[in-house]
Amino acid sequence: MPPTATMPRSPGVGAVGASRGQAARTGSPFFRLALIFGALLVYLGYRATVPSSHKVLESAVSFTPSSATISRRVVAVADLHGDLQHAHNVLRMAGIIDASANWIGGDAVLASTGDIVDRGDDTIELYKMFDRLRQQALEHGGEVRNCLGNHEMMNALHDWRYVTPGDVKSFGGPQARRNVMSSSGWIGKAWMSNYTISQTVPLLSPHKVPPGVPSHYAVPHASFVHGGIHPEWAAKGLDHINEVGRSLLFRALDWKSPRGHLPPDTSREEMSLYDEMGPLWYRGYAYETEEEVCHLAHAAKESLGVRHLVMGHTPHFDGFVVRCDAAVLLIDTGISRAYGGEQSALIFDTELLPLAKGAWEERSTLTALYRGRRPKIIKEIRRVV
């Protein structure tokens, strides 16, 4: 709770006589200069505490070159695992939803690294929430980007080892749950339409880059995936990864007698995507040495054309794991009550603003948000373009 403000007292009878001397002092040039200097300090303090992406009114009335500044906020969340309340907590903390769980993120991008399902009872409400937020975000110029996790694919395959009894009951029984998670069910259709193995998100909107920016400039990007993209998969390209994932997902959802494992007609490449080196299960970025991880990350980033690799899957209950100077960000902190870890969100705040003589500066700040803790700046990037 903020400190209680002290209201100024109205002047009493004794203050009237003193007001004449006060008026004389306020008319002096020195006093007027002090007032101007004080006002400038207050304004600069305000500028320092308000992110540029929130200065909508100021930008609308400014006639200085700074009106050409563009900005974007990208919010990333990892494994929610069936916990609607903790999902709400995290998204409210990040400024994405209000108390009624409606979108208030404006033109921000919300990226989920998957594993919305399993370990908790709130599967139905969580997928409904993402469907609702996706539509609401579009109406305000924002986006919702969803990755498939290994647990989405497991449920499509009818591998229900981590499904809770309460979750099955919420669907009306095992067969009703399978019907919803099939190629003709509403969750199955949502997965096919709006969920991919990986998402590459521009940290600034490319179509908003002002015309005065040098032609060689390219906006930075971040890659989001559930497990991790090994360089061998990265070399195949994002479109190919998602195409193979979509093929496997449909095969699993459309299997009439699912057995909890890969269907008999699964292709060799689909099998490879679903194995321990594939992007749904790979944990190398979490477990390899720093030297090896940085080597892998450099190769993967080059192939994908991104600055950051963001992934969930491997929980670290004390907070994000940041490796290779923020090239690798492991953001699964065990949000769900099934784990009892940190309720967290990763924030990318990026802006491009004009400098003197036709130069531009790109500024990017990566911040870790943890419920009940102070925000922690992970990385600040400044570069002139």
Radius of gyration, in angstroms, nearest whole number: 25 Å
- Return the CATH architecture: 4-Layer Sandwich
Distance between the amino and carboxyl termini: 42 Å
CATH topology: Purple Acid Phosphatase, chain A, domain 2
Approximately how much helix is present in the residues? Answer: 25-40%
Looking at CATH, the homologous superfamily is Metallo-dependent phosphatases
Describe, in plain words, how this protein is organized in 3D.
The chain is an alpha/beta fold. It has one domain: Purple Acid Phosphatase, chain A, domain 2 (4-Layer Sandwich). Helices cover 37% and strands 18% of the residues. It is built from 14 helices and 12 strands. It has helices at 13-26, 29-49, 56-61, 84-93, 123-139, 150-156, 165-171, 174-180, 186-194, 231-234, 238-253, 268-274, 284-287, 290-304; strands at residues 70-77, 109-112, 143-147, 195-196, 198-202, 221-225, 308-311, 321-323, 328-330, 344-354, 360-370, 376-384. It has a 7-stranded mixed beta sheet. Strands 5-6-7-9-8 form a 5-stranded mixed beta sheet. Helix 11 (238-253) crosses helix 12. The longest helix has 21 residues, at 29-49. The radius of gyration is 25 Å and the shape is globular. The two termini are 42 Å apart. InterPro entries: Calcineurin-like_PHP, Metallo-depent_PP-like. Residues 73-315 form the Calcineurin-like phosphoesterase domain. The chain crosses the membrane at residues 30-46. This is Metallo-dependent phosphatase. GO terms for molecular function: hydrolase activity.
